[in-house]
Amino acid sequence: MAKPTINRDQLRSRLQKRLGNGYTLDANAELLIYLDYIIFMRQLSQEVYNNAITETSKTSKLVNVKESHINKAKLNLLRKFRG
User: What CDD domains does the record point to (predicted)?
Assistant: First the structure.
């Protein structure tokens, strides 16, 4: 299955629509926003995995990720990324 891709012009136009007519984006702003998104998602997945590992038993090699792990990690990371 092919990954859906989006080019920079499409991303820039979507961001510009979200901002509205009174705002403009600097050069390469869409790249910075995209990189922040990627960093956030990577840290979210790592923290969810860590939360799931701490709650699983030591004998089981399977890690079960629950909704509570995701919500806990999401709240912690949103506080960090509030910036």
Answer: HFD_CENP-W
- Residue pLDDT, tens place only, 6-60: 788 888 888 899 888 888 888 888 889 889 889 999 999 999 988 888 877 666 6
Does residue 65 fall inside a structural domain?
Answer: yes
Question: DSSP secondary-structure letter at 81?
Answer: T
3-state secondary structure of 1: coil
pTM for the structure as a whole: 0.71
Supply the range of the domain harboring residue 44. 8-80
Rounded Cα–Cα distance for residues 48 and 70 (Å): 5
The closest alpha carbon to 41, from 11, 14, 77, 67, belongs to 77
Q: CA–CA separation, 8 vs 59, rounded Å?
A: 47
